[in-house]
Write a structure and sequence with these properties.
The complex is a heterodimer of chains A (314) and B (545). Chain A is of the alpha+beta class. Chain A folds into two domains: 91 residues, no CATH class; 177 residues, Sandwich (Jelly Rolls), CATH 2.60.120. In chain A, 23% of the residues lie in helices and 38% in strands. In chain A, strands 5, 8, 9, 10, 11, 13, 16 and 18 form an eight-stranded antiparallel beta sheet that branches. Chain A has a six-stranded antiparallel beta sheet with strand order 7-6-12-17-14-15. The mean pLDDT of chain A is 96. Chain B has 545 residues and is mainly alpha-helical. Chain B has two domains: 378 residues, no CATH class; 94 residues, no CATH class. Chain B has 22 helices and seven strands. In chain B, strands 4-3-5-7-6 form a five-stranded mixed beta sheet. A two-stranded antiparallel ribbon of chain B has the order 1-2. The radius of gyration of chain B is 25 Å and the shape is globular. Classes of the chains: A alpha+beta (314), B mainly alpha (545). At the A-B interface, helix 1, helix 3, helix 4 and strand 10 of A face helix 15, helix 17, helix 18, helix 19 and helix 22 of B.
């Protein structure tokens, strides 16, 4: 190695650590300012609100930024049904609120129609779903509004679960089951012995608005809705509490749909499958108004069957 | 080899004082971690026993008294909790040196953080010169996660201090320190055993170092029928267990069964959830790259690269005969670093503690970093004329040191959420799915919100331990009329400390308090870490829509 090359090597060695230190410091300060702050959301709120009116829902990317968005933009822009959505299939248009153009993998099929940079790194994009589903009836909403007839059916008979709006919400805290809302169908003494709309932590720790329906031992939960306008299929999701999906301790859960007394299909959920979509074609019932739709949830053994489902007809 | 003189001892003392001052003066913005709550309770129990010991020594040492006091938290040894107890009862209770009780409990661990930094300085200075020692001390202290753990009344930084002290005393006994340093190594080993179970790896360090650095001598001795070991080894073997048992009254009765109970608690420890790269791990096999990637993601890059330079220089030296280094210094530091990380070579070792469980490796990484920076600065100085060299070296030193110092101080009090630019900082780590914190300590960052609640409000604690919450109230940092609850149902306000596997708790809060809109979200660099919900005016009487 020549003297010049040796000298260059020595300079490079002497300066590499100071240069790295300076570069790392600059990078850390630069990165710290890249994420939109509360004030950026608040300043952008009027514009986001205006764009939100053009969409059926709003989502935030990256997901970890969502609490700040919820705090600053509020329930009008980010209601629970969007935050804890079952999936994106029924949204014709979605407003994506993002930090520096981040996106969510589940939106890959959507097409961007409008994109605006709102300052502080906030970007809003109006997305269009090329083939949105058109639900005709939400079973989840109907249960949440107390429009169902619910009962536990066991060998010892039929036990009606009355709709109650005077119960305390039951939320056990760390390591507990999902919270039971105040308004629910009460099937027994304990909070878990009920049917009601709650929010459920799926196997990826994503929030899912769904109907808690713990089946009884040796029987099933029966949920009956009347005068239901049907589409061509019954579409939904079902899963268990994430620790049960992970530990897989139980027997399969069977979700059955019956229209006017006739079984139209069933979905069998095994532990570990997670928040999985199912579709039950309605055949000749499609496009009619059913007098009665009964949804049943059962399992061979009821132990640890913390079932939560959502469904619509589309 | 630099002979330590009075200036070095003074510098070491100043390091202890400065580190302790910085830690105590920044403790006020830090909430109490979950485990701290358990150690507060244990320390108070031990403090009562120490009072009894002074008042009635005969009664204090009876089995009934020992069991009553020391059965509390007997899954961890006693030294640090005893120091927490003495600091609380003497420095706070009698001398009123601390405005906050919590800081008085934490004080001994803070001092030991200073001691760890100081011994890193002394060892680096003695082995490789003052500049190397000074840089090493800074490289150890200014790591965001280390700085966070240095505040706590826990054992992770104290065991790093005692591990390094013991290793240093052993090393000094080899370089002519004689029997005094060998005895000191034995006593320090006992104190390390009485601090935390990371100390179980010290014998591996000493034995590996002896075997590798003295293999010819050992082999020759064995051929002649004698085992020629460094004096420190028998001292550690004899004094270590004695000091350990003497310092932990719980072991004074049923010694064998209680000792094996302690060992089994840790060898059969249950697994907790920990997020890593977007996946929550809760049972083996754990990812083998966890410790390495987490170290790369949380220790400033300049420190790590400097350490690699130091290791490379050591490797070059290793090719030369090392008769002039009877302590085999590079080997000692390399073993110290490797043994600190070694348990995570197994996929069965729990990862729930984040980086805290391998903090014992950091002083050794810092020592190598000190050597690397020292050599770079020496090279720079030699390339320039003397007058310009001085300023260039000062400027280069500032460039090297500024990043760890600024990253560490900026990250406080969010130390467990701090990540380096290598992974995009805290926002990049959140996107990658790296853990954002644990132990529920960030309640300390929302005290202004909680103190603004109506009188008598109930607050769901989430991951904050009951005793940690009570300590905030005892400190006067949190209003005493606020009531803690362990379930969101019926609470007026709810805390949520984010961890991926705890998302369900936040969803419970939405349903129980009737809102998805937090009243406050706090975090680091725009990344949410803790948030507070207030009960919606309509309560939870409508189903979630």
């Amino acid at each position: 190695m020549g003297e010049l090359a040796r000298s260059r090597c020595r300079w490079a060695f002497a300066l590499c650590l100071p240069a790295l230190g300076a570069a790392e410091l600059a990078a850390s300060l630069w990165l710290a300012r890249r994420t939109p702050r509360d004030a950026d959301f608040i300043a952008a709120k009027p514009r986001i609100m205006a764009l939100r009116r053009l969409a059926e829902g709003a989502v935030v990317a990256p997901r970890w930024l969502e609490p700040v968005a919820r705090m600053t933009l509020g329930d009008e822009i980010l209601p629970l049904r969007d935050v804890a959505r079952a999936d994106e299939s029924a949204y014709a248009r979605l407003l994506l609120i993002s930090a520096r153009g981040a996106t969510l993998p589940e939106l890959s099929g959507f097409q961007a129609r409008r994109r605006e940079e709102l300052g502080g790194g906030l970007v809003v994009t109006l997305l269009e779903n090329p083939s949105p589903a058109r639900p005709t009836f939400s079973f989840t909403d109907a249960v949440g509004e107390g429009r169902a007839e619910v009962a536990w059916i066991t060998a010892s008979g039929r036990a009606a679960c009355p709709w109650r709006t005077d119960l305390p919400a039951a939320a056990p805290g760390l390591f507990g089951h999902p919270a039971m809302p105040s308004a629910r169908y009460a099937c027994g003494r304990f909070a878990w012995q009920s049917v009601g709309v709650t929010v459920h932590d799926d196997e990826r720790h994503l929030a899912r608005r769904c109907v808690w329906s713990h089946p009884p031992e040796g029987g099933h939960v029966s949920i009956v809705l009347r005068d239901v306008p049907l589409g061509q299929e019954l579409h939904g999701h079902l899963s268990l509490h994430w620790t049960l999906e992970r530990d897989r301790p139980g027997t399969p859960v069977v979700f059955t749909a019956r229209v006017d007394g006739v079984e139209v299909g069933r979905d069998v959920h095994r532990d570990g499958e997670g928040w999985r979509a199912f579709s039950l074609p309605l055949g000749a019932h499609g496009g009619r108004v059913a007098r009665e739709v009964e949804l049943r949830v059962e399992s061979e053994r009821a132990d640890q069957r913390h079932v939560c489902w959502e469904a619509d007809s589309r | 080899m630099t002979r330590l003189d009075r200036r070095d001892l003074l510098a070491a003392a100043l390091i202890v004082v400065a580190a302790t001052w910085l830690l105590t003066s920044t403790a006020g913005t830090l909430g109490y971690a979950r485990d701290e709550g358990f150690y507060f309770a244990a320390a108070e129990s031990y403090a009562r026993w120490f009072e009894l010991l002074l008042r009635d020594p005969g009664r204090a040492v009876t089995r009934a008294s020992v069991d009553a006091a020391w059965s509390v938290n007997h899954e961890h040894p006693a030294l640090l909790k005893s120091l927490f107890a003495l600091s609380w009862s003497l420095l706070h209770g009698r001398l009123h040196l601390f405005a906050e009780e919590g800081t008085s409990f934490r004080f001994p661990a803070m001092v030991l953080s200073g001691v760890a930094t100081a011994v890193t300085y002394l060892w680096g200075t003695e082995a490789r010169g003052r500049r190397a020692g000074a840089v090493a001390a800074g490289a150890f202290f200014f790591v965001p996660t280390t700085f966070y753990h240095s505040h706590l009344d826990c054992f992770d930084v104290p065991i790093a201090a005692l591990w390094t002290l013991t290793a240093w005393a052993y090393w000094r006994s080899l370089i002519g320190g004689g029997w005094r340093w060998a005895v000191l190594a034995g006593v320090l080993f006992g104190l390390a055993l009485d601090t935390k179970h990371n100390s179980w790896f010290l014998p591996f360090f000493v034995c590996a170092h002896t075997c590798l650095s003295r293999r010819a001598e050992l082999w020759e001795g064995l051929r002649r029928g004698r085992l020629s070991l460094p004096l420190a080894i028998p001292c550690m073997a004899l004094l270590g267990p004695l000091v350990f048992v003497a310092g932990w009254p719980w072991l004074w009765y049923d010694t064998a069964s209680r000792f094996f109970g302690y060992v089994q608690f840790h060898t059969r420890h249950e697994y907790y959830n920990m997020e890593f790269l977007g996946q929550t791990y809760w049972r083996p096999p754990f990812p083998r790259g966890y410790a390495w990637l987490m170290t790369a993601a949380t220790v400033p890059a300049v420190t790590l690269v400097a350490a690699l330079v130091g290791v490379a220089l050591a490797a070059r030296r290793a090719r030369r005969p090392h008769g002039d280094d009877p302590g085999a210094t590079d080997l000692a530091w390399a073993l110290g670093a490797l043994i600190g990380f070694a348990p995570w070579l197994s996929t069965g070792t729990p990862i729930f503690g984040g980086t805290k469980h391998w903090l014992t490796a950091y002083p050794f990484l810092a020592l190598f970093a000190g050597v690397g920076v020292d050599r770079a600065l020496s090279t720079l100085g030699a390339l320039l004329p003397p007058r310009r060299a001085r300023w260039a070296v000062v400027a280069a030193t500032v460039c090297v040191c500024a990043s760890p110092v600024v990253q560490t101080l900026r990250a406080h009090p969010w130390g467990l959420s701090a990540y380096t630019p290598l992974v995009g900082g805290a926002p990049g780590a959140a996107t990658l799915g790296l853990n954002r914190g644990f132990w529920g300590y960030t309640t300390g960052s929302v005290l202004d919100v909680l103190n603004g609640l109506p009188k008598g409000s109930s607050v769901y604690l989430h991951d904050t331990a009951w005793d940690s919450w009570k300590m905030l109230q005892r400190d006067g940092r949190l209003r005493g009329d606020l009531r803690a609850t362990l379930a969101p149902s019926g609470a007026d306000a709810a805390l949520y400390h984010h961890e991926a596997h705890m998302a369900g708790v936040e969803q419970q809060i939405w349903v129980a308090l009737g809102t998805t809109t937090p009243a406050a979200v706090r975090g680091l660099d725009g990344v949410p870490i803790v948030w507070v919900y207030l009960k919606a005016p309509h309560g939870s009487d409508t189903p979630p829509r």
